[in-house]
Every structure is written in structure tokens, then in C-alpha cells.
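Posting for a labmate who doesn't have an account.
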Amino acid sequence: MACKSLAVIMSGLLLTSTVAIANEESNQTAEQAAKELANPNTAYASLNLKLQYSGGYDGGGDSFATVLQPTLPFPMENGDKIIFRPAISYVQNDFNVNTPTSSQHMDQSGVSDISFDLAYAPKMEGGTIAAFGVFASLPTGSSEFTADQFAIGPEFMYGKVSAERVVGVFPSHLYGVSGNGADKSDTRINKTSTQLFWVELLEDGR
């Protein structure tokens, strides 16, 4: 009986150790996945859902946009990546536009122009991340939301990745080059945008 009890105790200790090791490996995997998904240069394919609300219009009302943006990375043998990120938006407007002589109620919904960026991300050491490429907009939106022009411009991203956080800056410029909307200077797209990102990484991938 003593030998049988000892065998049960040893089996229990072995099972506990195995579960502890499995939990530790699972936590490490979750942390790595969270860190990778927070990285704009991720090697993971993903689908981002953005909900954007705008309010505070002078005439009252609000605007709501739902944006779907998949990230499609194509890793290369040398560790570099080519990353393609299209964005599709559905917009709902319900606000008033007031001018000195009139007031107009905007009650619209539809799909806006599809935009995308195509970037080359070289493999870098020391936690540095960088990418450069092109940002573009296609005139595919509903009549109320399209800029009616093809626009394109450069983009650049630079950041740092550590065990605690991911930080960086992502400037881009967009300029209308063809289409009815680009024929006139007052409707031609010509804008510079800068995105700042800061992601804190918690333990166990949470």
C-alpha cells in the first residue's frame, strides 16, 4: 500500500508540473501574439474593426463610420515584408450644416471611397520598426461620399518595439491625380496626415 500511495503522489506531482509548464508556454504564446498584433509591421494577417463617432456640429447632430481594415502581410525569405492594408468604410451622417444664409440637414448613409496602403517593411534589429510605401484612394464610394478622383502619395512609418510597449509615428500625404474631382483645385485632394501610436503591452497577452 505504501508503494502504491507513493506512485500516486509522484504521478500527481508530475501532472502538476506538466500543467504548470503548459500554462507558462500558453502565457508566453499569448504575450507574443499580443506583441505581434500591436506591431504595424506584424507578420500576422488580421481584420481590424474601427468605430468612429463625430459630434459637436454647430447645427447639432452627429456622424458615425464603421471601418473594416484587413492587414495582409507577405513575408519574404530575408525577413522583410510587403504589407497591404485596404480600408472599407460605411458612413452615416445625421447633422445640420449652417451657413450665414441657410441651414441644410445632412441625412446620408453609404460607402465612402476605398483607400489602401502598400508598404515595404525591412527587417531591422534592436526593436526598431520601419516601413515606406504608397497610400492611395480609389473613387468607389456612393455619390454622396466619393471624392470622385484617384489620389496617391507617399507614406512612412517609424517606431520602436519593446517588452512593455509599441510606439511610433506614421505620416502620409495624399494628392488627387485623376478624375473629375481632381480637375479643380478646390475639390482636388491635397492633404498630409500623421498618425501617432502608443500601445502598452500587459502581462499574459491581456
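Reply:
Got it, the C-alpha cells are right above this. The first strand starts at residue 46 and ends at 54.
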